[in-house]
TrEMBL record:
<keyword id="KW-0805">Transcription regulation</keyword>
<dbReference type="InterPro" id="IPR000524">
    <property type="entry name" value="Tscrpt_reg_HTH_GntR"/>
</dbReference>
<keyword id="KW-0238">DNA-binding</keyword>
<dbReference type="Pfam" id="PF07729">
    <property type="entry name" value="FCD"/>
</dbReference>
<dbReference type="Pfam" id="PF00392">
    <property type="entry name" value="GntR"/>
</dbReference>
<protein>
    <submittedName>
        <fullName>GntR family transcriptional regulator</fullName>
    </submittedName>
</protein>
<dbReference type="InterPro" id="IPR011711">
    <property type="entry name" value="GntR_C"/>
</dbReference>
<dbReference type="InterPro" id="IPR036390">
    <property type="entry name" value="WH_DNA-bd_sf"/>
</dbReference>
<dbReference type="InterPro" id="IPR008920">
    <property type="entry name" value="TF_FadR/GntR_C"/>
</dbReference>
<dbReference type="InterPro" id="IPR036388">
    <property type="entry name" value="WH-like_DNA-bd_sf"/>
</dbReference>
<feature type="domain" description="HTH gntR-type">
    <location>
        <begin position="10"/>
        <end position="77"/>
    </location>
</feature>
<keyword id="KW-0804">Transcription</keyword>
Length: 248
């Protein structure tokens, strides 16, 4: 069959969508930033019509806000919204864990172990005070949590969870939060639960894990500078997020 084995080439619109989305999730485009189309065109190198399509798509995901005639802005952040996003993540993940633990086979166990191995190595480096790339750290965290639920048997559930996780991830990247040994210990405990197929205990750990992250961010006031930022403040130039994360 002609063309078999070749991936479909990404369109300029899809590429722009993915790049802007990645910058929003990473915090490089900070919460509240106004997204002027001319400035975006200079940065991402695509036509204004293509940018509008990408921004409306991101607005449907809750990552960008359409401001009527004023254009677009990166969605703001707040402690209230963070808690709502966290509850949605927990609702989906706790259900998916039960289904995945019941259905997971030996190959699934191997995927979970491998995902935790990478995450644990990076967490040990963070705990030792070494510098680490925030994007890599959160990628490994995401891969582990997704591996835990990957055998749930529902593509729709996995897609919905991925969207909720990304909104949660944006808060973590904005706050650049690493809770130290407690988070690493919870990940290790989740691995043990997966291997033992102990879904009820995993759900309890997940609740502590996610709620603990939210409480850490809110109590620490990490969202306050962004909550005060006016959506009209301008620039579309991606601000460098904290690139190095240290254990704390």
């Amino acid at each position: 069959m002609a063309g078999a084995g070749h991936e479909t080439e990404e369109t300029p619109g899809e590429a722009a969508y993915r790049r802007i989305r990645a910058d929003v999730l990473a915090g490089s485009l900070a919460p509240g930033r106004k997204l002027g189309l001319d400035g975006l065109r200079a940065i991402y190198g695509v036509a204004i019509g293509t940018l509008r399509e990408a921004l409306f798509r991101l607005a449907s995901e809750g990552l960008v806000v359409a401001e009527g005639q004023r254009g677009f802005a990166v969605a703001p952040v707040s402690s209230e919204d963070f808690r709502e996003v966290a509850e949605l993540r927990l609702l989906l993940e706790c259900y998916a864990v039960t289904e995945s633990f019941a259905a997971g086979d030996l190959d699934w166990e191997g995927q979970v172990v491998a995902a935790h191995h990478k995450l644990a190595i990076l967490e040990r480096r963070l705990l030792a005070g070494e510098a680490a790339d925030a994007t890599q750290w959160k990628r490994y965290d995401r891969e582990f949590h997704q591996a835990l639920i990957s055998a749930c048997g529902s593509v729709t559930l996995l897609e919905t969870y991925a969207a909720a996780y990304d909104r949660f991830l944006r808060y973590q990247m904005v706050a650049v939060v690493f809770r130290g040994a407690v988070a690493a210990e919870q990940h290790a405990a989740l691995l043990a639960c997966a291997l033992a197929r102990d879904a009820p205990r995993a759900q309890a750990i997940l609740r502590d894990h996610v709620d603990g992250c939210v409480d850490h961010v809110v109590r620490g006031g990490a969202l306050a500078p962004f909550a005060r930022r006016s959506p009209g403040m301008a620039s579309v130039t991606p601000e460098p997020n904290v690139a190095l994360v240290r254990g704390r």
